[in-house]
Amino acid sequence: FGQRRERGRIQTQRSAIRRVDQQAIAQADRIAAEVRDAESAIARAYERFQTLEQEVALAVQLEESERRRFELGEGTLLIVNLREQSTVEARLRLVDAKLDYQRALVQLRYATGEI
Questions:
Q1: Cα separations in angstroms, 86 against 16, 18, 58, 66, 109
Q2: Exposure pattern of 65-89 as b/e (b: 16+ CB <10 Å)?
Q3: pTM for the complete prediction?
Q4: With DSSP H G I counted as helix, E B as strand and the rest as coil, what are the percentages for the chain, rounded to 5?
Q5: Residue pLDDT, tens place only, 71-92
Q6: Who is most buried in 31, 42, 51, 84, counting CB within 10 A?
Q7: Does pLDDT of 1 surpass 80?
């Protein structure tokens, strides 16, 4: 009877160990997925940031060109104002992209346990 009880305890302990091992594997898989997601978010945010930097540079260039045209009497104040508005909107999108990039960096730091 004592041996059966010991075998039962051993089986229970083995089951508990397998359960803990499975939980550890599942947790490691979740962490790996979070890290991959964060790395992907960083890449997307950085690409968006680069694209928006180019968009801002182009918007500034167009605004300056339109302002020169206006000063030469070839354009209208309305067009200059529209170009200024486009520049502001592009800059706001750039700020949003910077924020998204920073959020993605924080997400990665969180997923890797840095914070």
A1: 63, 60, 10, 12, 35
A2: ebbeebeeeebeeebbeebeebbee
A3: 0.72
A4: 90, 0, 10
A5: 999 999 999 999 999 999 999 9
A6: 42
A7: no
